[in-house]
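[step 3/7] inverse_fold.run input=structure_tokens len=160
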């Protein structure tokens, strides 16, 4: 598997992953009915960098890295990761996380923060904790889960 910066040619493949991930309404804040044209602002905006993970030439995962805040808060990175559901449990998330942490360090970020990690997304919480992210806050009922209703969301952080 290899990770590279995304190009405009990856748009449709990333959309396929994005659509499958958000339609479940259990891990991301994006409306499950988000339109393909909106991927540009969510995954290809000018202030972020987009990467893809390939296995044998097929894109199976993606992540974005961007400043968590503007100006005086821009020294902290924020990332979002998505793996095609057919490739869950095969180490793709780990590879994306490791790459993003190294990338953030090279880009000069001092820390990384995830603003909303859904508390019921146990696999993600455990993965981020494995990479030394700490839960630094809980947003009570901060996420409207598609089947569970309002559930807590975590803010997770680690220094780089």
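[step 3/7] decode complete -> sequence:
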């Amino acid at each position: 598997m290899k990770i590279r910066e995304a190009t405009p040619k990856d748009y449709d493949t990333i959309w396929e992953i994005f659509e499958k991930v958000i339609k479940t309404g259990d891990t991301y804040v994006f409306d499950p009915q988000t339109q393909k044209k909106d991927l540009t602002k969510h995954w290809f905006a000018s202030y972020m960098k987009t990467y893809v993970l390939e296995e044998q030439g097929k894109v199976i995962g993606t992540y974005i890295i961007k400043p968590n805040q503007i100006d005086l808060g821009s020294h902290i990175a924020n990332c979002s990761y998505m793996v095609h559901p057919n490739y869950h449990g095969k180490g793709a998330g780990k590879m994306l996380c490791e790459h993003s942490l190294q990338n953030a360090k090279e880009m000069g970020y001092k820390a990384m923060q995830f603003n909303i990690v859904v508390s019921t997304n146990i696999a993600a919480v455990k993965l981020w904790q494995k990479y030394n992210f700490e839960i630094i806050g809980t947003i009570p009922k901060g996420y409207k889960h598609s089947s569970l209703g309002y559930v807590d969301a975590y803010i997770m952080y680690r220094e780089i």
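[step 4/7] annotate
Helices lie at 11-22, 39-43, 92-106, 122-130.
The mean pLDDT is 97.
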